[in-house]
């Protein structure tokens, strides 16, 4: 390993290079969100003098309780420290003499890919072994991973925060604000690493993919990325209004011994971070009327960020998310008998099999197809990943199992199971298609843009992907149901806007948005 150096807008960094790939870890992209900066939009980094070592990953964000920490360590994050001071990113960049595309990419500005990790908004980190960006950098791509605030520290509302905020200051979705700050850092600094800030592909998996879609509908993120990839990120967002999130924040304050909605900002910020992070909750983007001005599903229905080419897809075994003790039983018990009966008629399977496909299609596969069908002004590429896990007993591909294929990190499995030869072949094909998309905006040969008329997707099965018809029966059923729900969202949004306009008119312009 050799020492490599780069100068950023904030100061000089020292990293490592093996002659093909240079790596810089733990780079701060925003000030530590501690003390008075807790539950505030990210603030600029303080510049440093001299050289700053960028040789080790920064601390991971606090995970949501002991189960979040345990889950992170199970998937390869053992030993990672956790801290509220977590806003760092990592860069893998081509070095002269890298892959076939690397020298030209370095001379003219390499395409950039920015990865948003998943974890339900409560766990995860950009430093996990299977997010290693070395294979991308060897193929002429500058790869960036990052940490962002999670759990109650990343997605939190309370009346005290709203009262203290400036009129246009965004609220509640602090993890999304962190991602925007990281994208702005990329815009301002990535050229120093050989990257082209005008060719940024934002991609993520699970909640990270969910966030990619949210950022496509976020006015503050416009222009910060030019392409997107959504891996198992869905596409149908349940409404999450600020008022509901503030009520949950007041309940958290009560749980921790404070006077609920009457708690002061000083009291809230004095709470130990570990105590706050341990409180369970739902951690999704919040419609605050500022950062995210409208419900996201209707925004995507109107083709938000219409100019952005998109790859979107899901895995055949997304129901693996239910494979924890009591998980599937709890889900099955919560299904209404009428819905389960309709699912059985649709899929032609016994209740358990129908319920599993219902979960997969309702949350992942049907939403991905729905988003692709609405990309009329820019290309969308739809896929299904269907390579069974080498270490499992399911014939289908579990949630998140495509990540090692995309990153070419199949050897980083925490359980030590060795990949099979067909897995390696498929990983090479899938990785090359993601690289081609970053370089050229098209994911390689033989993958046409999605068109509703042909209704085809790329089916990733060993030894390589192939175009296959979408099994429309189940997905059409879901989409018909979702059209009705989306119509309700849109009607509610229009009604709210009309009422607010009337209130301002009646009040002589003194009404304020809520």
Total number of domains:
2
Distance between the termini: 56 Å
Give the tally of β-strands.
Answer: 13
The major pleated sheet works out as: 13 strands, mixed
**Which segments are poorly predicted (pLDDT under 50) over 5 or more consecutive residues?**
97-105, 495-514
Domain Carboxylesterase type B: 6-322, 358-461
Organism: Rugamonas rubra
Protein name: Para-nitrobenzyl esterase
InterPro entries: AB_hydrolase_fold (IPR029058), CarbesteraseB (IPR002018), Carboxylesterase_B_CS (IPR019819), Type-B_Carboxylest/Lipase (IPR050309)
Characterization of the model:
With 514 residues, the protein is α/β, with parallel strands linked by helices. The chain has two domains: 1-40 and 52-205 and 218-308, Rossmann fold, CATH 3.40.50.1820; 311-468, no CATH class. The chain is built from 17 helices and 13 strands. Strands 1, 2, 3, 4, 5, 6, 7, 8, 9, 10, 11, 12 and 13 form a 13-stranded mixed β-sheet that branches. A hairpin with a 4-residue loop joins β1 (2-7) and β2 (12-17). The relative contact order is 0.10. The model is unreliable at 97-105 and 495-514 (pLDDT under 50). This is Para-nitrobenzyl esterase. InterPro entries: AB_hydrolase_fold, CarbesteraseB, Carboxylesterase_B_CS, Type-B_Carboxylest/Lipase. Pfam families: COesterase.
